[in-house]
């Protein structure tokens, strides 16, 4: 199991996160095969994001969509399979929430198997329904 002391969790504003490395993390998770490097670069430029680095290897990532004042939405919390179960996901969530401190409502949606993970970071289920238009 990796040692968290060997991993640096750093905001995108302090150390640029290359889009191709984010795409590799998505691929390892089986997420978003349709996303392009250009789309990821644009998303990174528009909202807070944090990355977990083991040297030059991107081993975790989280980003948000926010108006910067009232609401934020936590997106794409992903950890490299080789670095799971060491607390890195919690470290990513804590780091991104630190960047969102002045924002009163931070939301997310997740699969039911991840509810307890996010509850440990202060999130709680609501009675609201998530709707998507695709």
UniProtKB/TrEMBL annotation:
Keywords: Acyltransferase, Transferase
CDD domains reported for this sequence: NAT_SF
Domain called N-acetyltransferase: residue spans: 11-134
Pfam family, one: Acetyltransf_1
Alphabetized InterPro entries for the sequence: Acyl_CoA_acyltransferase (IPR016181), GNAT_dom (IPR000182), NSI-like (IPR045039)
Highest taxon listed in the record's lineage: Bacteria
Protein name: GNAT family N-acetyltransferase
Organism of derivation: Dactylosporangium salmoneum
């Amino acid at each position: 199991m990796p040692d968290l002391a060997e991993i640096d969790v750093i905001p995108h504003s302090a150390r640029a996160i290359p889009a191709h490395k984010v795409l590799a993390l998505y691929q390892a998770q089986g997420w978003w095969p349709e996303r392009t490097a250009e789309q990821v670069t644009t998303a990174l430029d528009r909202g807070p994001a944090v990355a977990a680095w083991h040297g030059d290897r991107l081993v975790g990532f989280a980003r948000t969509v926010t108006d910067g004042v009232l609401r934020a939405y936590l997106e794409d919390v992903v950890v490299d399979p080789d670095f799971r179960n060491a607390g890195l996901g919690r470290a990513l969530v804590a780091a991104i929430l630190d960047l969102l401190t002045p924002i009163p409502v931070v939301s997310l949606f997740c699969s039911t198997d991840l509810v307890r993970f996010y509850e440990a970071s202060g999130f709680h289920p609501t009675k609201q329904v998530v709707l998507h238009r695709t």
